[in-house]
Amino acid sequence: MQSGYFLIADISGYTEFVQLHTLKQKPLFGKFMAKNFENHASIIISDLLESVIEAIEPSMKLHKLEGDAAFFYIEENSELDQADKIISAMGKANEAFTNKASDLLFVQACGCEPCSQSKNLKLKIVVHKGTCVTQKIRNFEEISGEDVILTHRLLKNNIASNEYWLVTKEFAKNLSKDNQKKFMPSSQKIENFGKIGLLICEFDSGEPVNSDVSKRSRAINWIIQASYFTKHTLKRPSRKIRIGDSNV
Ligand SMILES: [Zn+2]
Fold it and tell me: How many domains does the chain have?
Protein backbone atom coordinates (compact mmCIF):
# COMPACT_ATOMS: atom_id res chain seq x y z
CA MET A 1 0.00 0.00 0.00
CA GLN A 2 1.35 3.41 -0.90
CA SER A 3 -0.02 6.90 -0.42
CA GLY A 4 -0.22 9.39 -3.26
CA TYR A 5 -2.10 11.85 -5.40
CA PHE A 6 -4.42 10.92 -8.28
CA LEU A 7 -5.42 13.34 -11.02
CA ILE A 8 -7.51 12.98 -14.15
CA ALA A 9 -7.55 15.65 -16.86
CA ASP A 10 -10.59 15.09 -19.06
CA ILE A 11 -11.59 16.80 -22.27
CA SER A 12 -15.29 17.01 -22.90
CA GLY A 13 -17.78 18.45 -25.30
CA TYR A 14 -16.65 15.60 -27.54
CA THR A 15 -19.45 13.10 -27.00
CA GLU A 16 -22.03 15.49 -28.46
CA PHE A 17 -19.76 16.01 -31.45
CA VAL A 18 -21.09 13.63 -34.03
CA GLN A 19 -23.05 10.48 -33.75
CA LEU A 20 -20.45 8.25 -35.28
CA HIS A 21 -22.41 5.05 -34.78
CA THR A 22 -25.39 6.45 -36.74
CA LEU A 23 -23.13 7.64 -39.53
CA LYS A 24 -21.39 4.28 -39.81
CA GLN A 25 -24.68 2.55 -40.57
CA LYS A 26 -25.01 4.44 -43.85
CA PRO A 27 -23.48 2.50 -46.75
CA LEU A 28 -19.99 3.37 -48.01
CA PHE A 29 -20.24 7.12 -47.85
CA GLY A 30 -21.30 7.02 -44.23
CA LYS A 31 -18.42 4.75 -43.31
CA PHE A 32 -15.91 6.99 -45.07
CA MET A 33 -17.33 10.11 -43.47
CA ALA A 34 -17.37 8.51 -40.04
CA LYS A 35 -13.73 7.51 -40.38
CA ASN A 36 -12.74 11.00 -41.43
CA PHE A 37 -14.78 12.57 -38.63
CA GLU A 38 -13.32 10.20 -36.09
CA ASN A 39 -9.86 10.95 -37.37
CA HIS A 40 -10.25 14.74 -37.08
CA ALA A 41 -11.86 14.37 -33.67
CA SER A 42 -9.11 12.14 -32.31
CA ILE A 43 -6.31 14.31 -33.71
CA ILE A 44 -7.78 17.44 -32.11
CA ILE A 45 -8.34 15.68 -28.78
CA SER A 46 -4.87 14.15 -28.63
CA ASP A 47 -3.25 17.47 -29.54
CA LEU A 48 -5.16 19.26 -26.77
CA LEU A 49 -4.45 16.45 -24.33
CA GLU A 50 -0.75 16.53 -25.19
CA SER A 51 -0.55 20.21 -24.20
CA VAL A 52 -2.21 19.36 -20.87
CA ILE A 53 0.15 16.43 -20.28
CA GLU A 54 3.18 18.66 -20.90
CA ALA A 55 1.91 21.08 -18.27
CA ILE A 56 1.22 18.44 -15.61
CA GLU A 57 4.09 16.02 -16.19
CA PRO A 58 6.74 17.98 -14.31
CA SER A 59 4.67 17.52 -11.14
CA MET A 60 3.02 14.15 -11.71
CA LYS A 61 3.61 11.00 -13.71
CA LEU A 62 1.33 10.19 -16.63
CA HIS A 63 0.01 6.79 -15.67
CA LYS A 64 -2.45 6.02 -18.46
CA LEU A 65 -4.26 7.54 -21.40
CA GLU A 66 -7.96 6.79 -21.15
CA GLY A 67 -9.68 7.93 -24.34
CA ASP A 68 -10.28 11.68 -23.96
CA ALA A 69 -8.62 11.73 -20.57
CA ALA A 70 -5.17 11.39 -19.02
CA PHE A 71 -4.67 9.79 -15.61
CA PHE A 72 -1.74 10.95 -13.50
CA TYR A 73 -0.26 9.68 -10.28
CA ILE A 74 2.48 10.73 -7.91
CA GLU A 75 3.56 9.10 -4.68
CA GLU A 76 3.39 11.27 -1.60
CA ASN A 77 6.77 12.70 -0.63
CA SER A 78 8.04 14.68 2.33
CA GLU A 79 7.58 18.10 0.68
CA LEU A 80 4.97 20.15 2.49
CA ASP A 81 3.82 21.93 -0.65
CA GLN A 82 3.30 18.87 -2.85
CA ALA A 83 -0.45 19.51 -3.19
CA ASP A 84 0.12 23.21 -3.91
CA LYS A 85 2.54 22.27 -6.66
CA ILE A 86 -0.20 20.12 -8.20
CA ILE A 87 -2.56 23.12 -8.11
CA SER A 88 -0.01 25.27 -9.92
CA ALA A 89 0.44 22.52 -12.53
CA MET A 90 -3.35 22.52 -12.95
CA GLY A 91 -3.23 26.28 -13.53
CA LYS A 92 -0.60 25.71 -16.21
CA ALA A 93 -2.73 22.95 -17.74
CA ASN A 94 -5.73 25.29 -18.03
CA GLU A 95 -3.54 27.91 -19.67
CA ALA A 96 -1.95 25.39 -22.06
CA PHE A 97 -5.36 24.04 -23.01
CA THR A 98 -6.77 27.52 -23.74
CA ASN A 99 -3.71 28.43 -25.80
CA LYS A 100 -3.84 25.20 -27.77
CA ALA A 101 -7.58 25.58 -28.38
CA SER A 102 -7.00 29.03 -29.86
CA ASP A 103 -3.98 27.81 -31.90
CA LEU A 104 -6.23 25.15 -33.38
CA LEU A 105 -9.00 27.54 -34.44
CA PHE A 106 -7.93 27.15 -38.08
CA VAL A 107 -9.65 23.72 -38.08
CA GLN A 108 -12.94 25.64 -38.24
CA ALA A 109 -12.18 26.03 -41.95
CA CYS A 110 -12.49 22.25 -42.44
CA GLY A 111 -16.24 22.34 -42.04
CA CYS A 112 -16.68 18.80 -40.70
CA GLU A 113 -18.70 18.36 -37.53
CA PRO A 114 -15.85 17.54 -35.10
CA CYS A 115 -13.82 20.49 -36.38
CA SER A 116 -16.77 22.88 -36.16
CA GLN A 117 -17.59 21.71 -32.65
CA SER A 118 -14.00 21.71 -31.40
CA LYS A 119 -14.37 25.28 -30.16
CA ASN A 120 -16.73 23.93 -27.48
CA LEU A 121 -14.17 21.51 -26.05
CA LYS A 122 -13.29 22.19 -22.42
CA LEU A 123 -10.98 20.82 -19.77
CA LYS A 124 -12.02 19.43 -16.41
CA ILE A 125 -9.67 18.14 -13.75
CA VAL A 126 -10.44 15.92 -10.76
CA VAL A 127 -7.98 15.26 -7.94
CA HIS A 128 -7.94 12.97 -4.94
CA LYS A 129 -5.40 11.83 -2.39
CA GLY A 130 -5.44 8.31 -1.08
CA THR A 131 -3.79 4.93 -1.17
CA CYS A 132 -3.24 2.35 -3.89
CA VAL A 133 -1.36 -0.81 -4.72
CA THR A 134 0.99 -1.26 -7.65
CA GLN A 135 0.79 -4.34 -9.83
CA LYS A 136 3.40 -5.12 -12.38
CA ILE A 137 2.17 -6.74 -15.58
CA ARG A 138 5.04 -7.33 -17.98
CA ASN A 139 6.55 -3.87 -18.50
CA PHE A 140 3.52 -2.02 -17.28
CA GLU A 141 2.92 -0.85 -13.80
CA GLU A 142 -0.70 -0.46 -12.92
CA ILE A 143 -2.05 1.14 -9.80
CA SER A 144 -5.35 0.06 -8.37
CA GLY A 145 -7.55 0.33 -5.32
CA GLU A 146 -10.65 2.04 -4.04
CA ASP A 147 -9.14 5.51 -4.23
CA VAL A 148 -8.21 5.00 -7.88
CA ILE A 149 -11.83 3.99 -8.56
CA LEU A 150 -13.17 6.97 -6.62
CA THR A 151 -10.98 9.37 -8.64
CA HIS A 152 -12.49 8.03 -11.88
CA ARG A 153 -16.03 8.14 -10.50
CA LEU A 154 -15.61 11.82 -9.62
CA LEU A 155 -16.12 12.54 -13.31
CA LYS A 156 -19.59 11.00 -13.13
CA ASN A 157 -21.27 13.83 -11.29
CA ASN A 158 -24.21 16.23 -11.65
CA ILE A 159 -22.16 19.31 -12.43
CA ALA A 160 -23.59 21.08 -15.48
CA SER A 161 -20.36 22.82 -16.47
CA ASN A 162 -17.61 21.27 -18.60
CA GLU A 163 -14.89 23.42 -17.18
CA TYR A 164 -13.87 22.99 -13.56
CA TRP A 165 -11.56 21.51 -10.97
CA LEU A 166 -13.23 19.07 -8.61
CA VAL A 167 -11.20 17.83 -5.65
CA THR A 168 -11.78 15.72 -2.56
CA LYS A 169 -11.33 16.96 1.01
CA GLU A 170 -8.43 14.50 1.40
CA PHE A 171 -6.61 16.46 -1.30
CA ALA A 172 -7.76 19.93 -0.26
CA LYS A 173 -6.65 19.62 3.36
CA ASN A 174 -3.04 19.49 2.14
CA LEU A 175 -3.36 22.84 0.35
CA SER A 176 -2.30 26.24 1.58
CA LYS A 177 -5.07 28.52 2.86
CA ASP A 178 -4.81 30.64 -0.30
CA ASN A 179 -5.34 27.65 -2.55
CA GLN A 180 -8.17 26.34 -0.40
CA LYS A 181 -9.96 29.67 -0.90
CA LYS A 182 -10.20 28.98 -4.64
CA PHE A 183 -12.76 26.24 -4.00
CA MET A 184 -16.43 26.15 -3.06
CA PRO A 185 -18.12 23.21 -1.34
CA SER A 186 -20.01 20.85 -3.66
CA SER A 187 -21.84 17.77 -2.46
CA GLN A 188 -22.06 14.98 -5.05
CA LYS A 189 -23.61 11.55 -5.09
CA ILE A 190 -20.95 9.21 -6.40
CA GLU A 191 -21.83 5.70 -7.55
CA ASN A 192 -20.98 3.15 -4.84
CA PHE A 193 -19.46 5.82 -2.63
CA GLY A 194 -22.67 7.63 -1.69
CA LYS A 195 -22.96 11.32 -1.02
CA ILE A 196 -19.56 12.91 -0.47
CA GLY A 197 -18.46 16.43 0.27
CA LEU A 198 -16.20 17.75 -2.50
CA LEU A 199 -14.71 21.08 -3.45
CA ILE A 200 -15.15 22.78 -6.78
CA CYS A 201 -13.57 25.64 -8.67
CA GLU A 202 -15.47 26.55 -11.83
CA PHE A 203 -14.14 28.37 -14.87
CA ASP A 204 -15.77 30.12 -17.77
CA SER A 205 -13.20 30.74 -20.48
CA GLY A 206 -15.75 31.16 -23.28
CA GLU A 207 -14.99 30.38 -26.91
CA PRO A 208 -11.33 30.48 -27.96
CA VAL A 209 -10.18 33.51 -29.94
CA ASN A 210 -7.33 33.84 -32.40
CA SER A 211 -6.94 37.07 -34.36
CA ASP A 212 -4.36 35.52 -36.73
CA VAL A 213 -6.86 32.89 -37.79
CA SER A 214 -9.74 35.35 -38.16
CA LYS A 215 -7.58 37.75 -40.21
CA ARG A 216 -6.70 35.06 -42.73
CA SER A 217 -9.01 34.11 -45.57
CA ARG A 218 -10.98 30.90 -45.25
CA ALA A 219 -9.05 29.46 -48.21
CA ILE A 220 -5.72 29.92 -46.43
CA ASN A 221 -7.11 28.48 -43.20
CA TRP A 222 -8.47 25.57 -45.23
CA ILE A 223 -4.98 24.82 -46.58
CA ILE A 224 -3.50 25.08 -43.07
CA GLN A 225 -6.02 22.65 -41.60
CA ALA A 226 -5.56 20.20 -44.51
CA SER A 227 -1.79 20.06 -43.98
CA TYR A 228 -2.23 19.87 -40.20
CA PHE A 229 -4.48 16.81 -40.47
CA THR A 230 -2.26 15.17 -43.10
CA LYS A 231 0.80 15.63 -40.90
CA HIS A 232 -0.95 14.25 -37.82
CA THR A 233 -2.46 11.33 -39.71
CA LEU A 234 0.99 10.27 -40.90
CA LYS A 235 2.56 10.79 -37.53
CA ARG A 236 1.42 8.06 -35.18
CA PRO A 237 1.45 8.69 -31.43
CA SER A 238 4.95 8.47 -30.06
CA ARG A 239 4.05 7.83 -26.45
CA LYS A 240 4.96 4.39 -25.24
CA ILE A 241 1.94 4.07 -23.09
CA ARG A 242 -1.04 1.83 -23.12
CA ILE A 243 -4.10 3.41 -24.64
CA GLY A 244 -7.35 1.97 -23.47
CA ASP A 245 -10.60 2.64 -21.75
CA SER A 246 -10.64 2.68 -18.05
CA ASN A 247 -12.43 -0.31 -16.61
CA VAL A 248 -13.44 1.35 -13.39
ZN1 LIG B 1 -12.55 18.26 -39.88
Answer: 1
Rg over alpha carbons for the chain, rounded to the nearest Å, is: 19
Our measurement of the distance from residue 184's CA atom to the centroid of its chain's CA atoms, rounded to an integer in Å, reads 22
Centroid of ligand 1 to alpha carbon of 112 (angstroms): 4
Residue 175 within a domain: yes
Q: Does some domain include residue 248?
A: no
**Domain enclosing residue 159, as ranges:** 2-234
Threshold 0.85, pTM exceeds: yes
Torsion of CA 30, 34, 35, 37, to 10 degrees: 140
CATH no. for residue 81? 3.30.70.1230
Q: Residue 240 in 3-state DSSP?
A: coil
Handedness of CA 184, 247, 97, 33 (dihedral sign): negative
Distance of CA 107 to the CA centre of its chain: 19
Q: How far does residue 195's CA lie from ligand 1's centre (Å)?
A: 41
CA of 99 to the centre of ligand 1 (A): 19
Q: What is the pLDDT of residues 37-85, one digit of tens each?
A: 668 888 998 899 999 999 999 999 999 998 889 999 999 999 999 999 9
- Measured at the alpha carbon of residue 82, what is the angle toward residues 78 and 88, in degrees to the nearest 5? 165
From ligand 1's centre to the CA of 199, what distance in Å?
A: 37
Confirm whether 34 is domain-assigned: yes
Neighbours of 170 (CB within 10 A): 15
Question: What's the 227 CA to ligand 1 centre distance in angstroms?
Answer: 12
